[in-house]
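Incident review: delayed structure delivery

Summary: a single-chain prediction request sat in the queue longer than the usual turnaround. Root cause was a stuck worker, restarted by the on-call engineer. No data loss occurred. The affected request and its eventual output are reproduced below so the record is complete for anyone auditing the incident later.

Affected input:
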Amino acid sequence: MSDNFGYATQFPRVLCRFALFAVAFSIVSITTGIFLNYSYGLTTMGPAAVWLWPVAATGQFLVVLVLAELAGHYPLAGANYQWSARLVGSRFGYLVGALGVLYGAVGLPGIALLGLAPLTATVLGLDAGDTRLLLFIAILALVIAYLINIVRVQLAARVNNVAVFAEIIGTVVLSVVVFVLWVQGSGGTPDGGHGLGFLATTVPGAVFPDALVGGALVGIFTLVGFEAAADMAEEAVDARRTVPRAMILSVVVSGVLGWAALIGFTVAIPDLASVSASPVPLAAIAEYWLGPVLTKVFLAIMVFSMFALVVVAAASNSRLIFAMARDGMLPFSKALRRVNPRTSTPVPALVTSLVVCLVLLAYGTADGNAFAVLVGATALVPYLVYVLTLGGYLAKRRSIVAAAEGGFRLGAAALPVAVLAMLWLVAVIAALTLPEDFRSADYVVLGALALAGLWYVAALRRRLADGTAGIGSAAANEKAEVA
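Output delivered after worker restart:
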């Protein structure tokens, strides 16, 4: 079976196995995920939340096994969109793709403004409470990240390759250091030296079901996005082999290292009340044991890790837009599917993704509450994408021809793994939609789907009916467009 699936070849295959692993690992980004979500776990469940991380890691491991099989069978840009469309149909693929576009459009500026910008300001000794300054830093980071992707995908890959080591040093190594320092001084920590028993505590007065959901969200929010390696499949060397392995390895490594880091940080908490109240709990723990200078070094490494996440997310988002446009599924598809012949990058898709991010960034900054709601929706969206993709897999898996030689295959384990993964995803989606605190984010997702529905009714339905859009359409079979 051809890896082009009838499409004209538009990208050079330059990404090796480690580069693909770096893409998936940087997107998951245990540094970013733990930094942004650790305080949530502490305030809802307390230190005991760390024991729920392996639950999330196990659930996501089941999910990645199924998606890795699809990645080996359909090594195409646009990952979940392509898999869903080819399993079920172009209309179903459009729904999954629209959710993916929403996830990238909101999540990327959210990380830039809420994570990268205040951390950068802190490291530089600037006012992290200055809204205009944070907006400027976020915009600058987004523009630079997209420019890196426009120049050449190899440049983006080099940034992400370095980020792998920054992730390990900035999160895992630091947690080991503070753990060792805690062991050396364990006879008299300010909170009474609870030691490992400290991990069994919960927040006094917390309702257990709510605390359980809150504690699990640290892992649930973090261990997503590993399929970004599959978004880059058309630029991968030996994609059928390397992409599935990169996806699986990223989840395994992130799960193990992330849990080790959480345990190290949590055991070393000097005072639960003060750390829970801190806007940056990890920095408060690090500063207690290491002092302000080394803590700034740690924060600088975290800044780089977050920037690398922005770089690779920009690449992933643009490939989804490109893939959908190549099939005529989006407005202005003819322009959005062009690839620059000199840089071999989808420049119009990259620029469009950047503009959308900047518009949402400006809107969110003007109304901080609205932005918080938008970002909250990004926790739910990837799991909706996963559950729809797995639903298509369960419905059509018998019709899938065995992957080409070298592709990842579950074999006889396919059905039980897929069923267990689906049960896990249903439980996560229930946890992210039923609580009252998440209702505003639910409405954002419904609103985005309604907007996607308007485009479908206005134009896409006709295009799909007359064969000018969709998988195998006239648009999909056109020769490569060049800028």
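Verification: The longest helix spans residues 292-326.
Action items: add queue-age alerting; document worker restart procedure.
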